[in-house]
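Re-run requested by the PI after the first attempt was lost when the workstation crashed. Everything re-entered from the original request form. Ligand of interest: protoporphyrin IX containing FE.
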Amino acid sequence: MTIKQIGKVKTPKFIQTIESILKPLEFFDGCAKTYGELFFTNSIGTQEILVVSHPQDLQELFNPKNNILYAPGAANEIFKPLLGENSLIVQDGERHQKQRKLMMPPFHGEQMLMYGQEICKITQQVAQSLKRNQTFIARHLSEDITMRIILKVVFGINEGLRFDKLKKLMTTWLGLTSSALSASVLLFPPLRKDLGTWSPWGRFLRLRQEIDDLLMAEILERRQQVKSNNFNILSLLIQAQYEDGEAMSDVELRDNLLTLLNAGHETTATAIAWALYWIHQQPEVYEKVLHELQGLNTLDPLKIAQLPYLTAVCQETLRIYPVVLSTFPRVTLRAVNLRGYHVASGTYVTPCIYLTHWREDLYPQPDKFQPERFINRKYSSYEFWPFGGGSRQCLGQVFAMFEMKLVLATILLNYRLKLEEKAPVTPARRGFLLGPQGGVKMSLTLDTIH
Ligand code: HEM
């Protein structure tokens, strides 16, 4: 068989970097158009990176039996100052697998269903603060909801002084990484200079210290009373044990709480804001989803989570503009042949979720929001994969889908909202994520629709 050559993006490196940061979708589309379904870029870091998105390549690479891809923790080094040395995201190999195994159970199965009522209650509490006929930003609303959900359901902190303090500190702290300018302070180690409270890095360090202190106080207190309070993820993590009988240390717990907050807060909030946009942008989608919700005779979170049309709306939301465009970097452990292309051992790979989700052969008219695609066809996990794949696949994916559906159901069943955008909302980079430009302007027209 003749070996085909993989194209390399020829634009100068600094232009690739700027384009991939400022206009990521145009960058990927342009590369795919010129170089095809497999190409090398050198947009980030010093390494050439292979961008893959063809479902057949993803299947070959991610299939655990093939054991081709390694997810190096060192490739995520830039997250260390943000999340700490013990974060799951900066681990690899055996330690990564052990930590994942320990952290997985609270995010799955029956355990997760316990959080359902709490998620609906928090959504109600936050949505109640909306004022009739006043414009609000959907992303602010969803961020407030998902932050409270993390603090209450994941951390298990009850409302009070520590809850309010942590919420305020964490909102400010996460805000520091959401603009391209401040994220660059984190991305480029030479810019990390502590020049006092007014310098971005100095401010970042002080905030992190304050958050660390509050989290440590909470962890120590909860170790004392863990048995009486185990409907939250922190209590379950405190009790969990590795195979050798060891439990997570205090600093491991702290770093991983911050990891869950960072990985789970803005991602889900962005997805909810997009979903609210699409639902209200297309009256027929709104009517269908509301009709399905109103058909339920009991508002059981489990029943809501199983609704087919609501599920399809959430899937299509994550398909059309995936909140995370590409997975964490991977490295090939051995040479591999991908549809006739030779990929050497030791190649850095970035699987691109966005390019798969915009394939015409899988999703005709990919720019159209059509939840029915997911009703009419079952997509494989190499065709629809907003949560990544393989050994570093999103730990919170079941939780995130559950949360999205419950938040949307609670809002749609209780409030009548209106889109206040005059033109179609376009996607824009927000730190490491892709979200709706401006956050989606909406207003409340009726308090209740019953
Ligand atoms: C719509 C919401 C979300 C999206 C789109 C999303 C997407 C992703 C993606 C693409 C990855 C990288 C996967 C890879 O490299 O293959 C990831 C990793 C991760 N996500 Fe999520 N995520 C979401 C919500 C959450 C939530 C709610 C949590 C937890 C509370 C969470 C926790 C994590 C963690 C801990 C990792 C790192 C896993 C590891 O390193 O082993 N995510 N997520």
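Saved to the shared folder this time. Residues 88-89, 100, 154, 259-260, 263-264, 267-268, 271, 318, 323-324, 327-328, 386-390, 392-396, 399-400 surround protoporphyrin IX containing FE (CB under 6 Å).
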